[in-house]
Protein backbone atom coordinates (compact mmCIF):
# COMPACT_ATOMS: atom_id res chain seq x y z
CA UNK A 1 0.00 0.00 0.00
CA UNK A 2 1.39 3.39 -0.96
CA UNK A 3 2.08 5.95 1.75
CA UNK A 4 0.15 9.16 1.36
CA UNK A 5 2.23 12.34 0.95
CA UNK A 6 2.64 14.28 4.19
CA UNK A 7 2.97 17.69 2.42
CA UNK A 8 0.28 19.12 0.19
CA UNK A 9 1.21 19.46 -3.47
CA UNK A 10 1.03 23.27 -3.27
CA UNK A 11 3.72 23.27 -0.54
CA UNK A 12 5.95 21.03 -2.67
CA UNK A 13 5.61 23.37 -5.61
CA UNK A 14 6.51 26.32 -3.39
CA UNK A 15 9.65 24.56 -2.11
CA UNK A 16 10.67 23.67 -5.65
CA UNK A 17 10.21 27.30 -6.73
CA UNK A 18 12.37 28.51 -3.83
CA UNK A 19 15.09 26.02 -4.80
CA UNK A 20 15.10 27.27 -8.41
CA UNK A 21 15.35 30.88 -7.22
CA UNK A 22 18.24 30.01 -4.90
CA UNK A 23 20.18 28.31 -7.71
CA UNK A 24 19.58 31.28 -10.01
CA UNK A 25 20.90 33.63 -7.36
CA UNK A 26 23.92 31.45 -6.65
CA UNK A 27 24.92 31.35 -10.34
CA UNK A 28 24.55 34.91 -11.63
CA UNK A 29 24.33 35.53 -15.37
CA UNK A 30 26.87 38.07 -16.57
CA UNK A 31 25.08 40.72 -18.58
CA UNK A 32 27.33 43.12 -20.48
CA UNK A 33 26.64 46.80 -20.06
CA UNK A 34 27.19 48.54 -23.37
CA UNK A 35 27.07 52.27 -23.97
CA UNK A 36 27.51 53.10 -27.62
CA UNK A 37 29.30 56.35 -28.51
CA UNK A 38 26.98 59.22 -29.33
CA UNK A 39 27.49 62.65 -30.85
CA UNK A 40 27.72 65.58 -28.47
CA UNK A 41 26.14 68.98 -28.89
CA UNK A 42 29.36 70.96 -29.04
CA UNK A 43 30.59 73.72 -31.30
CA UNK A 44 34.29 73.07 -31.78
CA UNK A 45 36.91 75.46 -33.05
CA UNK A 46 39.28 74.81 -35.95
CA UNK A 47 36.42 74.61 -38.43
CA UNK A 48 35.12 71.07 -38.16
CA UNK A 49 34.54 70.69 -41.87
CA UNK A 50 33.81 67.70 -44.10
CA UNK A 51 30.74 66.87 -42.02
CA UNK A 52 32.70 65.52 -39.04
CA UNK A 53 31.15 65.66 -35.57
CA UNK A 54 32.61 65.14 -32.08
CA UNK A 55 31.45 62.17 -29.99
CA UNK A 56 31.31 61.60 -26.26
CA UNK A 57 34.49 59.47 -26.11
CA UNK A 58 36.73 62.33 -27.24
CA UNK A 59 35.05 65.68 -27.78
CA UNK A 60 36.97 68.36 -29.66
CA UNK A 61 40.44 68.27 -28.11
CA UNK A 62 40.25 65.17 -25.95
CA UNK A 63 38.45 66.96 -23.12
CA UNK A 64 35.92 64.09 -22.86
CA UNK A 65 38.57 61.37 -22.92
CA UNK A 66 38.80 59.33 -19.71
CA UNK A 67 41.62 57.00 -18.73
CA UNK A 68 38.99 54.62 -17.33
CA UNK A 69 36.93 54.64 -20.51
CA UNK A 70 37.17 52.29 -23.51
CA UNK A 71 39.86 54.40 -25.25
CA UNK A 72 43.44 53.72 -24.19
CA UNK A 73 46.13 56.35 -24.73
CA UNK A 74 48.28 55.52 -27.75
CA UNK A 75 50.37 58.69 -27.84
CA UNK A 76 53.56 56.88 -26.75
CA UNK A 77 53.70 54.40 -29.66
CA UNK A 78 56.78 54.08 -31.82
CA UNK A 79 60.48 54.80 -31.67
CA UNK A 80 61.58 56.51 -28.46
CA UNK A 81 58.05 56.22 -27.04
CA UNK A 82 57.00 58.84 -29.59
CA UNK A 83 59.19 61.46 -27.88
CA UNK A 84 62.31 61.08 -30.03
CA UNK A 85 62.88 61.28 -33.76
CA UNK A 86 64.50 58.39 -35.58
CA UNK A 87 68.14 59.45 -35.94
CA UNK A 88 69.75 60.31 -39.27
CA UNK A 89 73.19 58.90 -38.54
CA UNK A 90 76.33 59.47 -40.62
CA UNK A 91 77.52 56.73 -42.96
CA UNK A 92 80.06 54.36 -41.40
CA UNK A 93 80.96 52.11 -44.34
CA UNK A 94 80.12 52.04 -48.05
CA UNK A 95 79.71 48.55 -49.53
CA UNK A 96 81.07 49.65 -52.92
CA UNK A 97 83.87 51.92 -51.77
CA UNK A 98 85.05 49.89 -48.79
CA UNK A 99 84.17 46.29 -49.70
CA UNK A 100 84.11 46.33 -53.52
CA UNK A 101 80.47 45.31 -53.97
CA UNK A 102 79.54 45.42 -57.66
CA UNK A 103 75.90 46.47 -57.39
CA UNK A 104 75.23 45.41 -60.99
CA UNK A 105 72.63 42.71 -60.31
CA UNK A 106 74.86 40.04 -61.86
CA UNK A 107 77.84 39.54 -59.55
CA UNK A 108 77.14 38.01 -56.12
CA UNK A 109 77.62 40.78 -53.52
CA UNK A 110 76.92 38.62 -50.46
CA UNK A 111 80.54 38.40 -49.31
CA UNK A 112 81.00 42.17 -49.49
CA UNK A 113 77.81 42.85 -47.47
CA UNK A 114 78.67 40.23 -44.85
CA UNK A 115 82.11 41.82 -44.49
CA UNK A 116 80.44 45.21 -43.91
CA UNK A 117 78.21 43.68 -41.24
CA UNK A 118 81.20 42.12 -39.53
CA UNK A 119 83.11 45.42 -39.56
CA UNK A 120 80.25 47.21 -37.76
CA UNK A 121 79.11 44.41 -35.47
CA UNK A 122 80.81 45.62 -32.29
CA UNK A 123 80.36 49.41 -32.45
CA UNK A 124 77.39 49.58 -34.81
CA UNK A 125 77.12 51.93 -37.74
CA UNK A 126 75.36 52.78 -40.98
CA UNK A 127 76.08 50.44 -43.90
CA UNK A 128 75.47 52.41 -47.07
CA UNK A 129 74.39 50.89 -50.38
CA UNK A 130 74.93 53.38 -53.24
CA UNK A 131 72.54 53.22 -56.21
CA UNK A 132 72.55 49.78 -57.80
CA UNK A 133 71.11 46.29 -57.71
CA UNK A 134 72.84 44.03 -55.17
CA UNK A 135 72.53 40.29 -55.74
CA UNK A 136 72.42 38.47 -52.37
CA UNK A 137 72.35 34.74 -51.67
CA UNK A 138 72.37 34.49 -47.86
CA UNK A 139 70.77 35.92 -44.74
CA UNK A 140 71.83 39.26 -43.27
CA UNK A 141 71.67 39.08 -39.46
CA UNK A 142 71.77 42.49 -37.76
CA UNK A 143 72.71 43.30 -34.19
CA UNK A 144 72.32 46.46 -32.09
CA UNK A 145 72.90 49.82 -33.78
CA UNK A 146 73.44 48.40 -37.26
CA UNK A 147 71.55 50.25 -40.00
CA UNK A 148 71.12 49.23 -43.65
CA UNK A 149 70.69 52.38 -45.75
CA UNK A 150 70.21 52.78 -49.47
CA UNK A 151 70.05 55.78 -51.76
CA UNK A 152 66.24 55.54 -52.00
CA UNK A 153 63.84 52.74 -52.82
CA UNK A 154 63.92 53.71 -56.51
CA UNK A 155 67.74 53.65 -56.56
CA UNK A 156 68.97 50.82 -54.28
CA UNK A 157 67.65 47.28 -54.73
CA UNK A 158 68.65 44.36 -52.47
CA UNK A 159 67.75 41.37 -54.64
CA UNK A 160 67.65 38.06 -52.75
CA UNK A 161 67.48 35.19 -55.24
CA UNK A 162 67.52 32.52 -52.52
CA UNK A 163 64.71 31.45 -50.18
CA UNK A 164 65.11 30.19 -46.62
CA UNK A 165 64.13 26.73 -47.82
CA UNK A 166 67.00 26.76 -50.31
CA UNK A 167 69.38 27.77 -47.51
CA UNK A 168 68.14 25.44 -44.77
CA UNK A 169 65.90 22.79 -46.36
CA UNK A 170 62.33 21.93 -45.46
CA UNK A 171 63.18 20.23 -42.19
CA UNK A 172 62.00 16.84 -40.94
CA UNK A 173 58.33 17.69 -40.32
CA UNK A 174 57.10 19.43 -43.45
CA UNK A 175 54.86 17.53 -45.83
CA UNK A 176 52.89 19.26 -48.60
CA UNK A 177 49.25 19.64 -47.61
CA UNK A 178 49.85 17.99 -44.22
CA UNK A 179 52.39 19.85 -42.03
CA UNK A 180 53.01 23.55 -42.56
CA UNK A 181 56.27 24.99 -43.81
CA UNK A 182 58.80 25.92 -41.11
CA UNK A 183 59.05 29.35 -42.75
CA UNK A 184 55.36 30.18 -42.58
CA UNK A 185 56.05 32.15 -39.40
CA UNK A 186 59.77 32.10 -38.62
CA UNK A 187 62.89 33.53 -40.21
CA UNK A 188 63.72 36.25 -42.73
CA UNK A 189 66.53 37.20 -45.09
CA UNK A 190 67.12 40.35 -43.01
CA UNK A 191 66.73 39.52 -39.34
CA UNK A 192 67.86 40.19 -35.78
CA UNK A 193 68.27 36.57 -34.71
CA UNK A 194 70.21 36.60 -31.48
CA UNK A 195 70.35 34.22 -28.54
CA UNK A 196 71.24 36.48 -25.64
CA UNK A 197 69.34 39.37 -24.13
CA UNK A 198 71.04 42.71 -23.55
CA UNK A 199 70.30 42.62 -19.82
CA UNK A 200 70.12 39.93 -17.20
CA UNK A 201 66.48 39.59 -16.18
CA UNK A 202 67.03 39.53 -12.43
CA UNK A 203 69.05 42.76 -12.64
CA UNK A 204 66.12 44.48 -14.33
CA UNK A 205 63.64 43.60 -11.59
CA UNK A 206 62.74 46.46 -9.25
CA UNK A 207 59.75 45.37 -7.14
CA UNK A 208 56.59 43.29 -6.88
CA UNK A 209 53.12 44.83 -6.94
CA UNK A 210 51.43 44.53 -3.54
CA UNK A 211 47.81 45.48 -4.29
CA UNK A 212 45.43 45.11 -7.23
CA UNK A 213 44.83 48.16 -9.42
CA UNK A 214 42.13 49.01 -11.94
CA UNK A 215 42.38 50.11 -15.55
CA UNK A 216 42.81 53.87 -15.74
CA UNK A 217 44.57 54.20 -12.38
CA UNK A 218 48.17 55.45 -12.06
CA UNK A 219 49.24 54.47 -8.57
CA UNK A 220 50.84 51.09 -7.81
CA UNK A 221 51.65 49.86 -4.31
CA UNK A 222 54.84 47.81 -4.19
CA UNK A 223 56.73 45.38 -2.00
CA UNK A 224 59.81 43.15 -2.15
CA UNK A 225 62.03 45.95 -3.43
CA UNK A 226 65.35 45.23 -5.15
CA UNK A 227 68.81 45.88 -3.73
CA UNK A 228 67.55 45.51 -0.14
CA UNK A 229 65.84 48.91 -0.40
CA UNK A 230 63.34 49.83 2.29
CA UNK A 231 61.37 52.59 0.59
CA UNK A 232 59.97 52.76 -2.94
CA UNK A 233 61.40 56.24 -3.46
CA UNK A 234 64.87 54.73 -2.98
CA UNK A 235 64.29 52.60 -6.08
CA UNK A 236 62.02 54.67 -8.34
CA UNK A 237 63.32 58.04 -9.54
CA UNK A 238 60.99 60.57 -11.11
CA UNK A 239 61.35 60.54 -14.88
CA UNK A 240 62.81 57.02 -15.09
CA UNK A 241 61.17 54.41 -17.30
CA UNK A 242 59.69 51.27 -15.79
CA UNK A 243 57.72 48.33 -17.13
CA UNK A 244 54.87 46.64 -15.30
CA UNK A 245 54.85 43.00 -16.42
CA UNK A 246 52.29 40.27 -15.78
CA UNK A 247 52.53 36.53 -16.37
CA UNK A 248 50.07 34.14 -17.90
CA UNK A 249 48.77 31.35 -15.67
CA UNK A 250 48.78 27.71 -16.68
CA UNK A 251 44.99 27.95 -16.92
CA UNK A 252 45.24 31.00 -19.24
CA UNK A 253 43.53 33.19 -16.65
CA UNK A 254 45.24 36.34 -17.95
CA UNK A 255 43.94 35.82 -21.49
CA UNK A 256 40.46 35.33 -20.07
CA UNK A 257 40.75 38.57 -18.09
CA UNK A 258 41.84 40.37 -21.26
CA UNK A 259 38.57 39.23 -22.86
CA UNK A 260 36.51 40.83 -20.06
CA UNK A 261 36.12 37.35 -18.53
CA UNK A 262 33.30 36.73 -20.95
CA UNK A 263 34.37 33.38 -22.37
CA UNK A 264 36.56 30.35 -21.92
CA UNK A 265 39.80 30.68 -23.86
CA UNK A 266 41.69 28.31 -26.12
CA UNK A 267 42.84 24.98 -24.75
CA UNK A 268 46.56 25.44 -25.50
CA UNK A 269 47.16 29.04 -24.38
CA UNK A 270 47.93 27.98 -20.82
CA UNK A 271 50.33 25.22 -21.79
CA UNK A 272 52.07 27.36 -24.41
CA UNK A 273 52.45 30.55 -22.36
CA UNK A 274 51.83 29.62 -18.73
CA UNK A 275 54.49 31.33 -16.60
CA UNK A 276 55.62 33.67 -19.36
CA UNK A 277 55.61 37.47 -18.89
CA UNK A 278 53.38 38.36 -21.84
CA UNK A 279 51.80 41.69 -20.86
CA UNK A 280 53.88 44.87 -20.52
CA UNK A 281 52.78 48.37 -19.55
CA UNK A 282 55.67 50.83 -19.98
CA UNK A 283 55.65 54.26 -18.36
CA UNK A 284 57.80 56.92 -16.78
CA UNK A 285 57.57 57.47 -13.03
CA UNK A 286 55.97 60.72 -11.90
CA UNK A 287 56.56 60.33 -8.18
CA UNK A 288 57.24 57.72 -5.49
CA UNK A 289 56.63 57.42 -1.77
CA UNK A 290 57.25 54.93 1.00
CA UNK A 291 55.44 51.99 -0.63
CA UNK A 292 54.00 53.38 -3.87
CA UNK A 293 54.83 54.92 -7.21
CA UNK A 294 52.77 57.10 -9.54
CA UNK A 295 52.87 56.37 -13.28
CA UNK A 296 52.73 58.85 -16.12
CA UNK A 297 50.62 56.55 -18.30
CA UNK A 298 47.31 55.30 -16.88
CA UNK A 299 47.06 51.51 -16.66
CA UNK A 300 45.49 50.03 -19.78
CA UNK A 301 44.28 46.85 -18.04
CA UNK A 302 43.31 45.70 -14.57
CA UNK A 303 46.24 44.47 -12.48
CA UNK A 304 45.50 41.24 -10.59
CA UNK A 305 47.89 39.68 -8.07
CA UNK A 306 47.16 36.21 -9.47
CA UNK A 307 49.21 37.19 -12.52
CA UNK A 308 52.38 37.87 -10.52
CA UNK A 309 52.72 41.56 -11.44
CA UNK A 310 56.26 42.87 -11.08
CA UNK A 311 58.02 46.07 -12.08
CA UNK A 312 61.20 46.04 -14.19
CA UNK A 313 63.37 48.68 -15.77
CA UNK A 314 61.81 47.65 -19.12
CA UNK A 315 60.69 44.65 -21.12
CA UNK A 316 63.87 42.76 -21.89
CA UNK A 317 65.21 42.86 -25.43
CA UNK A 318 68.01 41.50 -27.57
CA UNK A 319 68.75 44.36 -29.97
CA UNK A 320 68.26 48.11 -30.06
CA UNK A 321 68.86 50.79 -32.69
CA UNK A 322 68.48 48.49 -35.73
CA UNK A 323 67.33 50.21 -38.90
CA UNK A 324 66.45 49.38 -42.52
CA UNK A 325 65.82 52.46 -44.65
CA UNK A 326 65.74 54.02 -48.12
CA UNK A 327 65.94 50.88 -50.23
CA UNK A 328 63.98 48.17 -52.00
CA UNK A 329 63.98 44.47 -51.08
CA UNK A 330 63.03 42.21 -53.94
CA UNK A 331 62.61 38.47 -54.44
CA UNK A 332 62.35 36.67 -57.78
CA UNK A 333 58.78 36.51 -59.02
CA UNK A 334 57.28 33.09 -58.35
CA UNK A 335 53.66 32.02 -58.00
CA UNK A 336 52.56 31.99 -54.36
CA UNK A 337 52.55 28.34 -53.29
CA UNK A 338 49.67 28.61 -50.86
CA UNK A 339 48.84 29.02 -47.19
CA UNK A 340 51.47 27.34 -44.96
CA UNK A 341 53.39 26.06 -47.99
CA UNK A 342 55.76 29.05 -48.18
CA UNK A 343 59.44 28.45 -49.13
CA UNK A 344 60.52 31.46 -47.06
CA UNK A 345 60.85 34.53 -49.27
CA UNK A 346 60.58 36.54 -46.04
CA UNK A 347 62.04 40.05 -46.03
CA UNK A 348 62.48 41.52 -42.50
CA UNK A 349 62.08 40.05 -39.03
CA UNK A 350 62.68 41.85 -35.71
CA UNK A 351 62.79 39.65 -32.63
CA UNK A 352 62.96 41.18 -29.12
CA UNK A 353 63.90 44.56 -30.58
CA UNK A 354 63.38 48.06 -29.21
CA UNK A 355 63.91 51.56 -30.62
CA UNK A 356 64.39 50.10 -34.10
CA UNK A 357 62.79 51.02 -37.40
CA UNK A 358 61.94 50.30 -41.02
CA UNK A 359 61.25 53.40 -43.10
CA UNK A 360 61.00 54.44 -46.75
CA UNK A 361 61.26 50.83 -47.92
CA UNK A 362 59.58 48.89 -50.74
CA UNK A 363 59.24 45.08 -50.59
CA UNK A 364 58.32 43.00 -53.65
CA UNK A 365 57.26 39.35 -54.09
CA UNK A 366 57.57 38.38 -50.42
CA UNK A 367 55.84 35.51 -48.67
CA UNK A 368 56.10 37.61 -45.49
CA UNK A 369 57.23 41.24 -45.75
CA UNK A 370 57.77 42.53 -42.17
CA UNK A 371 57.40 40.48 -38.96
CA UNK A 372 57.92 41.72 -35.42
CA UNK A 373 58.09 39.41 -32.38
CA UNK A 374 58.15 40.35 -28.68
CA UNK A 375 59.32 43.89 -29.41
CA UNK A 376 58.55 47.35 -28.00
CA UNK A 377 58.76 50.99 -29.15
CA UNK A 378 59.60 50.39 -32.83
CA UNK A 379 58.42 52.28 -35.92
CA UNK A 380 57.51 51.01 -39.38
CA UNK A 381 56.88 54.05 -41.58
CA UNK A 382 56.34 54.79 -45.26
CA UNK A 383 56.53 51.23 -46.57
CA UNK A 384 55.21 49.86 -49.84
CA UNK A 385 54.48 46.14 -50.18
CA UNK A 386 53.46 44.47 -53.42
CA UNK A 387 54.37 42.25 -56.36
CA UNK A 388 56.25 42.72 -59.63
CA UNK A 389 55.82 42.32 -62.53
CA UNK A 390 52.37 40.81 -61.83
CA UNK A 391 50.23 39.21 -59.14
CA UNK A 392 51.50 35.99 -57.53
CA UNK A 393 48.01 34.50 -57.34
CA UNK A 394 47.23 31.30 -59.17
CA UNK A 395 50.06 29.06 -57.97
CA UNK A 396 49.11 25.41 -57.63
CA UNK A 397 49.39 24.11 -54.08
CA UNK A 398 48.47 21.19 -51.86
CA UNK A 399 45.39 22.40 -50.02
CA UNK A 400 44.34 21.29 -46.56
CA UNK A 401 42.06 18.68 -48.09
CA UNK A 402 45.08 17.19 -49.91
CA UNK A 403 43.95 18.12 -53.41
CA UNK A 404 45.67 20.51 -55.75
CA UNK A 405 44.23 24.03 -55.60
CA UNK A 406 45.02 27.49 -56.93
CA UNK A 407 46.41 29.97 -54.42
CA UNK A 408 44.06 32.95 -54.11
CA UNK A 409 46.49 35.36 -52.38
CA UNK A 410 49.77 37.13 -53.21
CA UNK A 411 51.51 36.06 -50.01
CA UNK A 412 51.09 35.10 -46.37
CA UNK A 413 51.74 38.28 -44.34
CA UNK A 414 52.41 41.92 -45.12
CA UNK A 415 53.04 43.47 -41.66
CA UNK A 416 52.65 41.38 -38.51
CA UNK A 417 53.14 42.22 -34.82
CA UNK A 418 53.39 38.93 -32.96
CA UNK A 419 53.48 37.62 -29.45
CA UNK A 420 54.01 40.19 -26.68
CA UNK A 421 54.75 43.14 -28.98
CA UNK A 422 53.78 46.46 -27.43
CA UNK A 423 53.80 50.19 -28.25
CA UNK A 424 54.86 49.81 -31.89
CA UNK A 425 53.81 52.26 -34.61
CA UNK A 426 52.94 51.24 -38.19
CA UNK A 427 52.13 54.26 -40.36
CA UNK A 428 52.00 55.53 -43.95
CA UNK A 429 51.80 52.07 -45.50
CA UNK A 430 50.46 50.92 -48.85
CA UNK A 431 49.85 47.24 -49.54
CA UNK A 432 48.96 46.28 -53.11
CA UNK A 433 47.71 42.81 -53.84
CA UNK A 434 46.15 40.68 -51.10
CA UNK A 435 47.58 38.56 -48.29
CA UNK A 436 46.13 36.07 -45.86
CA UNK A 437 47.09 38.51 -43.11
CA UNK A 438 47.72 42.02 -44.45
CA UNK A 439 48.01 43.67 -41.02
CA UNK A 440 48.20 41.36 -38.02
CA UNK A 441 48.36 41.49 -34.22
CA UNK A 442 48.55 38.36 -32.08
CA UNK A 443 49.28 36.94 -28.66
CA UNK A 444 48.78 39.50 -25.85
CA UNK A 445 50.17 42.34 -28.02
CA UNK A 446 48.86 45.75 -27.00
CA UNK A 447 49.14 49.52 -27.45
CA UNK A 448 50.21 49.10 -31.08
CA UNK A 449 49.06 51.67 -33.64
CA UNK A 450 48.23 51.22 -37.34
CA UNK A 451 47.70 54.66 -38.85
CA UNK A 452 47.29 56.43 -42.18
CA UNK A 453 47.54 53.53 -44.61
CA UNK A 454 45.82 51.88 -47.54
CA UNK A 455 45.67 48.67 -49.49
CA UNK A 456 43.90 46.65 -52.14
CA UNK A 457 41.71 44.68 -49.72
CA UNK A 458 43.18 44.92 -46.22
CA UNK A 459 42.58 42.31 -43.55
CA UNK A 460 42.97 43.83 -40.05
CA UNK A 461 43.70 40.43 -38.59
CA UNK A 462 43.50 39.60 -34.89
CA UNK A 463 45.18 36.23 -34.82
CA UNK A 464 44.38 34.77 -31.42
CA UNK A 465 45.92 34.94 -27.97
CA UNK A 466 43.87 37.99 -26.88
CA UNK A 467 45.66 40.94 -28.52
CA UNK A 468 44.06 43.93 -26.80
CA UNK A 469 44.02 47.74 -26.65
CA UNK A 470 45.42 48.19 -30.17
CA UNK A 471 44.44 51.12 -32.43
CA UNK A 472 43.58 51.15 -36.14
CA UNK A 473 42.86 54.63 -37.48
CA UNK A 474 42.60 56.57 -40.76
CA UNK A 475 42.87 53.50 -42.99
CA UNK A 476 41.47 52.90 -46.48
CA UNK A 477 40.66 49.20 -46.76
CA UNK A 478 40.25 49.26 -50.55
CA UNK A 479 37.59 46.68 -51.42
CA UNK A 480 36.67 46.16 -47.78
CA UNK A 481 35.81 42.48 -48.16
CA UNK A 482 38.51 41.06 -45.85
CA UNK A 483 38.72 43.59 -42.99
CA UNK A 484 37.06 41.44 -40.29
CA UNK A 485 38.34 38.10 -41.61
CA UNK A 486 40.07 37.30 -38.33
CA UNK A 487 41.67 33.91 -37.78
CA UNK A 488 44.08 31.91 -35.64
CA UNK A 489 44.95 28.58 -34.08
CA UNK A 490 41.90 26.88 -32.48
CA UNK A 491 43.78 26.48 -29.21
CA UNK A 492 44.45 30.23 -28.99
CA UNK A 493 40.87 31.55 -29.13
CA UNK A 494 39.46 34.13 -28.97
CA UNK A 495 40.98 36.01 -31.86
CA UNK A 496 40.82 39.37 -30.05
CA UNK A 497 40.97 40.63 -26.49
CA UNK A 498 38.98 43.68 -25.39
CA UNK A 499 39.30 47.38 -26.20
CA UNK A 500 40.79 47.11 -29.66
CA UNK A 501 39.74 50.36 -31.31
CA UNK A 502 38.92 50.96 -34.97
CA UNK A 503 38.53 54.68 -35.70
CA UNK A 504 37.80 56.18 -39.10
CA UNK A 505 38.15 53.10 -41.28
CA UNK A 506 36.59 53.10 -44.74
CA UNK A 507 36.61 51.16 -48.02
CA UNK A 508 37.07 53.46 -51.01
CA UNK A 509 36.43 50.66 -53.52
CA UNK A 510 33.71 48.68 -51.75
CA UNK A 511 31.34 47.16 -54.34
CA UNK A 512 27.99 48.95 -54.56
CA UNK A 513 24.93 48.65 -56.78
CA UNK A 514 23.64 51.60 -58.78
CA UNK A 515 20.86 53.57 -57.09
CA UNK A 516 18.10 52.46 -59.49
CA UNK A 517 15.36 53.67 -57.16
CA UNK A 518 16.96 57.09 -57.01
CA UNK A 519 17.38 57.21 -60.76
CA UNK A 520 13.69 56.43 -61.38
CA UNK A 521 12.27 58.67 -58.66
CA UNK A 522 10.63 62.00 -59.50
CA UNK A 523 13.27 64.70 -59.59
CA UNK A 524 15.92 61.97 -59.72
CA UNK A 525 18.66 64.37 -60.81
CA UNK A 526 18.63 65.95 -57.36
CA UNK A 527 17.75 62.89 -55.28
CA UNK A 528 19.86 60.03 -56.60
CA UNK A 529 22.85 59.01 -54.53
CA UNK A 530 26.38 59.37 -55.77
CA UNK A 531 28.74 56.38 -55.74
CA UNK A 532 30.45 57.93 -52.72
CA UNK A 533 27.13 58.15 -50.86
CA UNK A 534 26.31 54.56 -51.76
CA UNK A 535 29.67 53.41 -50.46
CA UNK A 536 29.04 55.19 -47.15
CA UNK A 537 25.91 53.04 -46.81
CA UNK A 538 27.56 49.76 -47.71
CA UNK A 539 28.66 47.66 -44.74
CA UNK A 540 31.75 45.50 -44.35
CA UNK A 541 31.12 41.76 -44.53
CA UNK A 542 31.82 39.78 -41.38
CA UNK A 543 32.60 36.08 -40.98
CA UNK A 544 29.87 34.06 -39.31
CA UNK A 545 31.52 33.13 -36.03
CA UNK A 546 30.30 33.03 -32.42
CA UNK A 547 31.46 35.84 -30.16
CA UNK A 548 33.62 33.51 -28.09
CA UNK A 549 35.84 33.14 -31.16
CA UNK A 550 35.63 36.62 -32.66
CA UNK A 551 36.10 38.48 -29.37
CA UNK A 552 34.39 40.78 -26.90
CA UNK A 553 34.54 44.48 -26.08
CA UNK A 554 35.62 45.95 -29.44
CA UNK A 555 35.16 49.67 -30.19
CA UNK A 556 34.31 50.80 -33.73
CA UNK A 557 33.91 54.50 -34.53
CA UNK A 558 33.14 55.60 -38.08
CA UNK A 559 33.54 52.06 -39.41
CA UNK A 560 30.79 50.73 -41.72
CA UNK A 561 29.63 47.63 -39.87
CA UNK A 562 26.14 46.29 -39.31
CA UNK A 563 25.53 46.47 -35.54
CA UNK A 564 22.74 43.90 -35.86
CA UNK A 565 25.12 41.20 -37.08
CA UNK A 566 24.65 38.02 -34.99
CA UNK A 567 28.25 37.94 -33.70
CA UNK A 568 28.02 41.55 -32.51
CA UNK A 569 24.57 41.09 -30.98
CA UNK A 570 25.69 37.95 -29.18
CA UNK A 571 28.74 39.68 -27.71
CA UNK A 572 26.56 42.52 -26.46
CA UNK A 573 29.50 44.74 -25.50
CA UNK A 574 30.83 46.04 -28.82
CA UNK A 575 30.60 49.85 -28.92
CA UNK A 576 29.72 51.08 -32.41
CA UNK A 577 29.14 54.53 -33.83
CA UNK A 578 28.50 54.89 -37.54
CA UNK A 579 26.45 57.34 -39.57
CA UNK A 580 26.55 57.54 -43.37
CA UNK A 581 25.76 61.27 -43.16
CA UNK A 582 28.17 62.37 -40.43
CA UNK A 583 31.74 61.19 -39.91
CA UNK A 584 33.34 61.25 -36.47
CA UNK A 585 35.96 63.71 -35.30
CA UNK A 586 38.93 63.41 -35.37
CA UNK A 587 39.85 61.76 -38.66
CA UNK A 588 43.02 60.27 -37.16
CA UNK A 589 42.79 59.42 -33.46
CA UNK A 590 46.50 58.72 -33.09
CA UNK A 591 47.47 62.16 -34.42
CA UNK A 592 44.86 63.77 -32.16
CA UNK A 593 46.24 61.95 -29.14
CA UNK A 594 49.76 63.05 -29.96
CA UNK A 595 48.62 66.67 -30.34
CA UNK A 596 46.73 66.66 -27.03
CA UNK A 597 49.08 64.51 -24.96
CA UNK A 598 50.27 67.41 -22.80
CA UNK A 599 46.81 68.61 -21.84
CA UNK A 600 45.26 65.17 -21.27
CA UNK A 601 48.06 63.54 -19.27
CA UNK A 602 50.17 64.63 -16.36
CA UNK A 603 53.56 64.37 -18.03
CA UNK A 604 57.02 64.39 -16.55
CA UNK A 605 58.35 67.77 -17.58
CA UNK A 606 62.03 66.97 -18.08
CA UNK A 607 63.40 64.06 -20.05
CA UNK A 608 66.72 62.71 -18.78
CA UNK A 609 69.19 61.90 -21.54
CA UNK A 610 68.89 58.31 -22.73
CA UNK A 611 65.87 57.64 -20.57
CA UNK A 612 63.69 55.86 -23.11
CA UNK A 613 63.72 52.06 -22.98
CA UNK A 614 66.52 50.67 -25.11
CA UNK A 615 68.36 53.93 -25.64
CA UNK A 616 71.99 53.52 -26.60
CA UNK A 617 73.22 55.03 -23.35
CA UNK A 618 71.54 52.31 -21.33
CA UNK A 619 72.34 49.24 -23.43
CA UNK A 620 76.00 48.65 -22.72
CA UNK A 621 75.47 45.65 -20.46
CA UNK A 622 76.38 42.32 -21.97
CA UNK A 623 74.79 40.18 -19.26
CA UNK A 624 72.63 37.48 -20.70
CA UNK A 625 69.20 36.31 -19.63
CA UNK A 626 69.44 33.47 -17.07
CA UNK A 627 68.81 30.10 -18.61
CA UNK A 628 69.40 31.24 -22.19
CA UNK A 629 72.22 29.53 -23.95
CA UNK A 630 74.64 31.64 -25.95
CA UNK A 631 74.98 28.86 -28.51
CA UNK A 632 73.74 29.82 -31.97
CA UNK A 633 70.36 28.20 -32.68
CA UNK A 634 69.87 26.69 -36.12
CA UNK A 635 67.10 28.49 -37.99
CA UNK A 636 65.24 25.21 -38.25
CA UNK A 637 64.83 25.08 -34.45
CA UNK A 638 63.55 28.66 -34.38
CA UNK A 639 61.07 27.78 -37.08
CA UNK A 640 59.74 24.76 -35.22
CA UNK A 641 59.31 26.81 -32.06
CA UNK A 642 57.22 29.48 -33.74
CA UNK A 643 55.28 27.01 -35.84
CA UNK A 644 54.30 25.10 -32.71
CA UNK A 645 52.90 28.27 -31.13
CA UNK A 646 51.35 29.98 -34.11
CA UNK A 647 48.76 29.17 -36.71
Can you describe this structure?
Residues 95-168 form the Rhamnogalacturonase A/B/Epimerase-like pectate lyase domain. Residues 605-639 are annotated as: Disordered. This is Rhamnogalacturonase A/B/Epimerase-like pectate lyase domain-containing protein. It comes from Tetradesmus obliquus. Residues 605-632 have a biased composition (Low complexity). The chain has 647 residues and is an alpha/beta fold. Helices cover 15% and strands 26% of the residues. The protein has a 15-stranded parallel beta sheet that branches. The protein has a seven-stranded parallel beta sheet with strand order 6-9-18-21-25-27-29. A six-stranded antiparallel β-barrel has the order 10-11-14-13-12-15. The longest helix has 18 residues, at 9-26. The protein is globular, with a radius of gyration of 27 Å.
Tally of DSSP β-strands: 34
Shape: globular
What is the mean pLDDT?
A: 86
Work out the helicity level: 10-25%
Output the number of helix runs: 14
How many angstroms does the end-to-end distance come to? Answer: 68 Å
* Largest sheet geometry: 15 strands, parallel
Structural class: alpha/beta
Regions with pLDDT < 50 over 5+ consecutive residues? 1-7, 15-31, 616-647
The Cα radius of gyration reads: 27 Å
Task: Kindly estimate the percentage of residues that lie in beta strands according to DSSP.
Answer: 25-35%
Organism: Tetradesmus obliquus (Green alga)
InterPro entries: Pectin_lyas_fold (IPR012334), Pectin_lyase_fold/virulence (IPR011050), RHGA/B-epi-like_pectate_lyase (IPR024535)
Signal peptide: 1-26
Region (Disordered): 605-639
